[in-house]
Amino acid sequence: MNEFEHRVYPLIVKNLGRARRGVPKVEFHTNIYARLSGIPDMVGEDNPHAEYDWKKNKIYLYTPAMVSEKEIIKSLLHEYTHATQDPKKMKEYRKLGYAKNPYERAAHKAEKNWRKYL
Q1: Rounded distance between C-alpha atoms, residue 97 and residue 70, angstroms
Q2: Closest among 12, 10, 24, 16 to 106, alpha carbons compared
Q3: What is the pLDDT of residues 18-53, one digit of tens each?
């Protein structure tokens, strides 16, 4: 993480409260396919902006989508919100679909506060 993330991420952690498994580490990768395969130039059809890995307690940010401080902040807010949620309920809520999932709604709501961290 660069100086910007070192300044912003601790504020996000402080403001959103304790994560279930402690503060997740943040890693940047070119894309999900390269991260999962270990092949640096691997590509695929679709790539998320970011994701939270419940088992490893890590937030992955994918650099093609991190084009501005705004996008980095929004992604950190969204994924850190997931780190504060119950993974058992997340499995249940996924059955509702992304748009109706209360945990995804909460994560999107957290993103709306991104200006607070500039």
Answers
A1: 26
A2: 16
A3: 999 999 999 999 888 888 888 888 887 777 899 999
CB burial string 50-66: b at 16+ within 10 A, e below:
bbbbbeeeebbbbeebb
The values of phi and psi at residue 60, to 5°, are -105, 125
The answer to whether residues 4 and 72 touch, using CB atoms and an 8 Å cutoff, is yes
If we measure between CA atoms, which residue out of 68, 38, 65 comes closest to residue 51? 65
Taking alpha carbons only, the member of 4, 7, 22 closest to residue 80 is 22
pTM across the whole model: 0.91
